[in-house]
Amino acid sequence: MRIITGLGRILIVLLFACLSRECSAADGPRQRSILVLEEADFRSPFYSEIFDGIRAAAKQNGHAHTVIYGESLDLARFPGPDYEDSLVGHLKTKFADRSIDVIISIGVAAAKFLQKHKQDIWPAAPVVYAFVPDLPEVRALFLPDTTAIFARVRPTHLLTAARAIVPDLTRVVLVGGAWRNPLVYGHWKQDFAAAMPGLEVTDLSDATLREVRNQVATLPAGSAILTSAMYSDGEGTYYSPASALARVAESANRPVIITSDTFLGRSGVGGFLLLPDVIGREAGGVATRILAGEAPSSIAAFDGDNVKPIFDWRQLKRWNVDEANLPPGSEVRFRELGFWEQYYWHTMLVAAVVLTQALMIAILLRERRLRFLAEVEARQRMSELAHMNRRATAGEMSASIAHELSQPLAAILLNAETAGHVLQSPAPDLGEVRDMLEHIRRDDQRASEVIGRLRSFLKRDPTERRDIDLNATVDEVFRFLSVQALTYDVGLSTEPSPATIRVKADRVQLQQVILNLVVNGMDAVAHLPADRRRVVGRTSLTEGNLALVSIADLGDGILAGKVTEIFKPFFTTKTQGMGIGLSIARTIVEAHGGRIWAENAPSGGAVFHISLPLVVTRQA
Ligand code: ADP
Fold first, then answer.
1. Is 585 in the pocket of ligand 1 (CB under 6 A)?
2. Residue percentage of the chain with pLDDT more than 90
3. Domains and CATH numbers, the chain
4. Which residues contact 314 (CB under 8 A, 6 or more apart)?
């Protein structure tokens, strides 16, 4: 070390200093700092929102390394040179080793303070003035190398708001110390006189809070109370402006016009309101531009967009104010929604559900009606088909009917001729003639019975349900078909139940069902050898207390797997078949509350069963 000269030592120190600076540069950009100088206490909502706005703007503009200091001067509540001197001393000590890159001065009082003391405390820092009115007296406070964003509720703004709330305005009452400050409200007297000549003005700006409360309690109609911030009253009592105003509003019998949105909802009806958050964001925005390198003098002072007409809906209701009278662009807050607005979606949902339900019910009812009509139509068609089916059967049977009629007619002719011969004899046997006449009468009766049966079978009567004897009904059908059976050489026989079985049914319809089954049975056996050409009709009672008719034949049976299908309309295996006999039979049986089904008998041949509800059964 001894070989290092004094000059060398200096060089080493310089090199070290240089290196260490480079190191810190390599760590990142130097930390920037903003000092927010609030004229009042930044714990009050208004100033605290300004501070938050500044912070938000600085963050948004990407100055992550910006530190924001805040100082509350609280000059409105602590006036006087002694406090100011001690404040200067305090700030000098506090910021001795902190470099401040930009000062944001909030309020006229802070601007005044800087005018007097900035050189002493922060001589190099550029200044952004915010929350100051654009008045010549205020501009006169600005130091060189500064810029400003103006924020101002003009006295005429208050008057406009008051006239919107009280259309017949004749008098205004001024409350709050700021009315006395020409740097805040300027020359309001001239402004009011110009805007509304003859307006009565009661100035309570230096009255005590107690006096103010007393006075505003008994104001005549046509009055409005125009407020400004109130920090202290004539008695030397200090307040936070928000709570002081709330107390004034408590006793006021007329609308209270306010100037900050931090008062809205607590006291006033509204007015042209300062938006502290916007004031902060605007100031923060300009400050970050300066931090980014712009010279403050190159940024012209401008009017901020930080005042807006805003009103409290509840107060508008209280003072019976028509919203149409509010200044253009007004915002109405705290609106209580009416039932319809509040439950709009609920109501719509319920209405939608009810409507859907009603629609569904209507659709279902329509469906039901359509189905009913379709059923009626189907029944009509079926009845027509049944009629056709009967006529077809009757047509088929016409030969046997003719045969059945020809027998009694031939007998009548024979008896009549014989009786004629007998009467021509000299001593006619009148007893014999009487017998012959009796035979003629019986044969005639038989013939007319055949015709009567045919006619009743062909009739298309509406359904007529009666208490009928099932054995007799089956027997009638078998007798009806006996001649046709003779033609085909098919043996027809019945095995009636020993018990009388009574069912409630339409006799003709039931006969048609049985007739179709017997004719089918005859069709099935007609081509077979004589020992198999047999169709049997049985009646019985089931265990479930139902009447059962079974028509069995000894034919080849029903095609495999078709025992259900044969009941479908138009299913036929016959070349001349129509395939409607069984479907008609099923419709008729089901309409009677019964069931029809078919099976192949184990011993061969098909068996068709009809079960019907019983009416009365009596043991024979
Ligand atoms: P169709 O007699 O005009 O064919 P049906 O509806 O009366 O119409 O009968 C439908 C089908 O059922 C017949 O074509 C036949 O295949 C079958 N069938 C009906 N009765 C019998 C039976 N006794 N034996 C065998 N098959 C039968």
1. no
2. 54
3. 155-273+307-341 (3.40.50.2300), 461-620 (3.30.565.10)
4. 334, 336
Q: Which residues pair with 102 in a beta bridge?
A: 34
> Counting Cβ atoms within 10 Å, is residue 611 exposed (0-12), middle (13-18) or buried (19+)?
buried
Report CA(593)–ligand 1 centroid distance (Å).
Answer: 23
Using CA positions, which residue lies closest to atom 12 of ligand 1? 566
Give the nearest ligand 1 atom to 608 CA.
Answer: 23
Alpha helix (H) ranges present in 481-550? 482-488, 507-525
Task: Kindly tell me the burial class for residue 17, based on how many C-beta atoms sit within 10 Å of its own C-beta (0-12, 13-18, 19 or more).
Answer: exposed
583 Cα distance to chain centroid: 49
What pLDDT is attached to residue 13? 39
Exposure string for 21-60, b = 16+ CB within 10 A, e = fewer: eeeeeeeeeeebbbbbbbbbbbebbbbbbbbbbbbebbee
Which whole-number Å values give the CA distances from 489 to 2, 484, 511, 527, in the listed order? 155, 8, 22, 10
Atom of ligand 1 nearest to the CA of 605: 24
* Residue 605 Cβ contacting ligand 1 at under 6 Å: no
- Ligand 1 centre distance from Cα of residue 556 (Å): 12
Looking at the chain, the whole-number percentage of residues with pLDDT higher than 70 is 88
Alpha carbon distance 121, 114 (integer Å): 9
Collapsing DSSP to helix, strand or coil, 490 comes out as coil
- Compute, in angstroms, the gap from residue 502 CA to the centroid of ligand 1: 28
pLDDT range class, residue 28, cuts 50, 70, 90:
low
* Residue located via tokens 């948004």: 60
Higher-confidence position of 581 and 396: 581
Q: Is the CB of 562 under 6 A from ligand 1?
A: no
Is it the case that residue 234 has pLDDT exceeding 70?
Answer: no
Whether residue 558 has its Cβ less than 6 Å from ligand 1: yes
- Residues in CB range of 103: below 8 A, 6 or more apart: 34, 35, 36, 37, 114, 118, 122, 125, 126, 127, 128
Instruction: Pick from 582, 587, 597, 607 the residue to mutate for probing ligand 1's pocket: most ligand atoms within 8 Å of its CB.
Output: 582
CB neighbourhood size of 160 (10 A): 17
Asked if residue 230 lies in contact with residue 177, where contact means CB atoms within 8 angstroms, the answer is yes
Q: Is it the case that residue 8 has pLDDT exceeding 60? A: no
Q: What is the pLDDT of residues 40-72, one digit of tens each?
A: 887 888 999 999 999 999 888 765 578 999 999
* CB of 581 closer than 6 angstroms to any ligand 1 atom: yes
The atom of ligand 1 lying closest to the CA of 582 is 6
Ligand 1 atom nearest to CA at 583: 6
